[in-house]
Fold:
Amino acid sequence: MNVKEFIEFLNRWLGKFHPEEGLLYGDEKQIIKGITVCWMVTKNVIEFSVKKGNNLIISHEDLFFPPDYAFSAKRKGVVSRERTSLLKKHKISVIRIHYLADRYCVLDDFAIALSLGNPVIKRGFYRVYEIKEISLQKFASDVKKYLNLEKVRITGSPKWKVKRIGSLWGGLGLSINAVFIDEILRYNVDTVIAGEVDEYTMRAMKDMDVGIVEVGHEISEETGLKHLARDLREKIKTIPVSYCPNGIPYTAF
Ligand SMILES: [Fe+2]
Ligand SMILES: [Fe+2]
Structure:
């Protein structure tokens, strides 16, 4: 199967690509030897793919930095050039599956990983969950346990109550997505569980007495991306599919 045929298969399976999705780098005629599924095409993912002999990477996030939303000449960025020169050297193509993956499983798998149960609000990409009331501190330690994390970042007092939780999975907690955050606040949540937040969001939530538990952007999407990799492996039995984590990019002192 070549890259073009694979894209046709993806569109039959998951739906039509949104503008940010599709072939970001490489050659449509390339015959696929193996596939790496990942959150972002960082150097460790490229090295992993070379070792495995995988010449196609499926990435959830943008390959380029500056990314799609920040810079129209993104392919000329210093980091973009560094990454694409490696892809060129090793003849690796990259397909981005973003919106379609979130819709397929990434959004709901985050709540499944956290054992939040069925949402009480499920509207478009908005999800609100209700649990038996606990403290923010207890909720944060449950989250750590479920996701097998040493640390999470919380905003708000550890004593704040947690009962009605909005999901800001992935990057939805970043102020660039403030319209989404504003809407989730209209569902009277007392807490949000987030992939990644910035200070604009932290301070906004604090002013509303809404607690935040932030687990990491990749972590919040990883359960779903592994799910996608598993389903892909089952569907195309002839091509090997592996998942490669990016890993936590910082050390907390
Ligand atoms: Fe996502
Ligand atoms: Fe994301």
Remarks:
- The first helix runs from residue 3 to 14.
